[in-house]
Write a structure and sequence with these properties.
Layout (H helix, E strand, L loop, with lengths): L13 E7 L2 E6 L3 E6 H7 L9 E4 L2 E7 H4 L12 E7 L2 E7 L1 E7 L5 E2 L13 E7 L2 E6 L1 H4 L4
Parallel strand pairs: 2-11, 5-7
Antiparallel strand pairs: 1-2, 1-8, 3-6, 4-5, 6-7, 9-10, 10-11
Keywords: Cytoplasm
Protein name: Chemotaxis protein CheW
Pfam families: CheW (PF01584)
């Protein structure tokens, strides 16, 4: 098991980075089933109800979480960059709405430093650390912890 400098949990080997406002976050790529543009997802999901948080995806009701609301950043801004990340967490399929997808990064555990104190709707337990990738850094989050109350 890899040890991080945060001491809480090991970072994933690979992360999907996404944007919420001006912040970039990374989640374990192994949790990601698919990534969809929001417009295409909304069109394909027969009954998309963000207020109720449910989408009908291929005949299956899938909970949808607006990550801007979850992180207390206000309502989602729907544009061409808005995406839905479909995740598999503990055998459940869930979707999260994000402002955009950034990149996929391989994580070097030795380059993960403690994350700054959580703010907004994010809690310290949600943080894995701060991954550095070239000239920028990405806040690595434990998406299963973030969505545990969803």
């Amino acid at each position: 098991m890899k040890k991080t400098t945060t001491g809480k949990r090991p970072p994933p080997d690979e992360v999907l980075a996404f944007m919420l406002g001006n912040e970039e976050y990374g989640i374990d790529m192994q949790r990601v089933q698919e990534i969809r543009g929001f417009a295409a997802f909304a069109q394909e999901a027969n009954a998309l109800d963000l207020d109720g948080g449910i989408a009908n995806m291929r005949g299956v009701s899938v909970p949808i979480v607006d990550m801007r609301k979850r992180f207390a950043l206000g309502d989602a801004v729907f544009d061409d960059s808005t995406s839905v990340i479909v995740l598999s967490i503990d055998g459940r399929t869930m979707g999260v709405v994000v402002d955009g997808i950034s990149d996929v990064h391989r994580v070097d555990a030795g380059r993960v430093i403690p994350a700054p104190r959580a703010r907004g709707g994010l809690k310290n337990d949600h943080l894995i650390g701060l991954g550095t990738f070239g000239p920028h850094s990405v806040t690595l989050i434990a998406i299963d912890e973030v969505l545990a109350v969803a």
